[in-house]
Design goal:
alpha/beta, seven-stranded mixed β-sheet, binds 6-O-phosphono-beta-D-fructofuranose, 330 residues, Rossmann fold, elongated, 11 helices
Length: 330
């Protein structure tokens, strides 16, 4: 563990990409850990955009009081096209130099780490990444900050849809987020007893889906839930519903897209604890001299993955979860 420092450093923290519940808990952990070890900590607002524009100010212990339970991010976030240009990165470097920043802690997903990797090839200010995304698609950690809250939000929404589906004997197609990964669909589908789960990692065709629904109909299932990951090859929930309706009309159908509800709300206990652990680990990694790595949690242990590896690979859905979903959906 690093000691309290005799030569204080200036550390900066920012959030970037899609917000994720637990980002605030991670900011709090980063800020307080840096102060604990005797360093100054600066917040960069609006992600890489604010880095380019110099929206930077010092944070104190009280700056992060009463935020551990709040969704969103007090530092705001953005997706930045400017940072992908040489001119944007040069401007960001100038701003970091202006505040004598020695280290940057980046809270975000693979787009954020890709930006950090590009920057590290040109400039000598190192980054440490903290995985924050509801999608859980990052290599180098079992779970990303925000995923647990998102799946619980999706689960609660689907439970409510189940009530009305059962009351009206309807077939519902429910679309959940996840970009091109099926983690949210898989977890929320299993947790709500969905009759079918469509994810990009599995090639369930419309024909197979109809066969599955038909078998349920023959077994007297009066209502059904199909969870569709937004990135599924057959399309989103509206598209899948249209394709199914062309050949299978036994149920009256409805479509619900849960959307950005999944990104907000108070983080779950798991997300708050994960964010606290990874926030502390990120600062300690920086103080130990680790550069351009993402901190993650594997089997309850802190691990470090170089950005170049983290952005090259994707976490994969456990095939056993798919098997389990198939067995339980009969
Ligand atoms: O990466 C998080 C995420 O919520 C994805 O699940 C989704 O595809 C995307 O962001 C939506 O992005 P935006 O908020 O920019 O529409």
């Amino acid at each position: 563990m690093p000691r309290k420092s005799a030569s204080p450093r200036n550390i900066a923290v920012f959030t970037s990409g899609g917000d994720a519940p637990g980002m605030n808990a991670a900011i709090r952990a980063v800020v307080r850990t840096a102060i604990y070890y005797g360093h100054r900590i600066f917040g960069i607002y609006r992600g890489y955009e604010g880095m380019i524009d110099g929206e930077i100010s010092e944070l104190f212990s009280t700056s992060v009081s009463n935020i551990i339970h709040r969704g969103g991010t007090i530092l705001k976030t953005a997706r930045s096209a400017r940072f992908m240009t040489e001119a944007g990165m040069a401007k960001a470097y100038e701003q970091l130099r202006r505040y004598d920043i020695d280290y940057v802690i980046a809270l975000g997903g693979d787009g954020t780490f890709r930006g950090a990797l590009d920057f590290s090839k040109r400039y000598r200010i190192p980054f440490v990444g903290v995985p924050c995304t509801i999608d859980n698609d990052l290599y180098g950690t079992d779970y990303t900050i925000g995923f647990d809250t998102a799946i619980n939000t999706a689960m609660q929404a689907i439970d409510k849809i189940r009530d009305t589906a059962a009351a009206h004997d309807r077939l519902f197609f429910v679309e959940v987020m996840g970009r091109d990964a099926g983690f949210i669909a898989m977890r929320s589908g299993i947790a709500t007893g969905a009759e079918a789960i469509l994810i990009p990692e599995d090639k369930l065709s419309i024909k197979q889906l109809i066969e599955l629904l038909r078998r349920g109909w023959q077994r007297q299932k009066t209502s059904c839930i199909v969870v569709v990951a937004e990135g599924d090859e057959e399309g989103g929930a509206f598209e899948v519903a249209e394709k199914v309706k062309k050949q299978f009309r036994q149920y009256e159908t409805r479509v619900t897209v849960i959307g950005h509800l999944q990104r907000g709300g108070s983080p779950t206990c798991n997300d708050r604890v994960l964010a606290s652990r990874l926030g502390v680990a990120a600062v300690e990694a920086a103080l130990a001299g680790k550069k351009n790595v993402m901190v993650g949690m594997r089997h309850t242990r802190i691990v470090y993955t170089p950005f170049r590896k983290a952005v090259k690979h994707h976490q994969t859905v456990n095939p056993d979860m798919l098997r389990l979903a198939n067995i339980l959906s009969i």
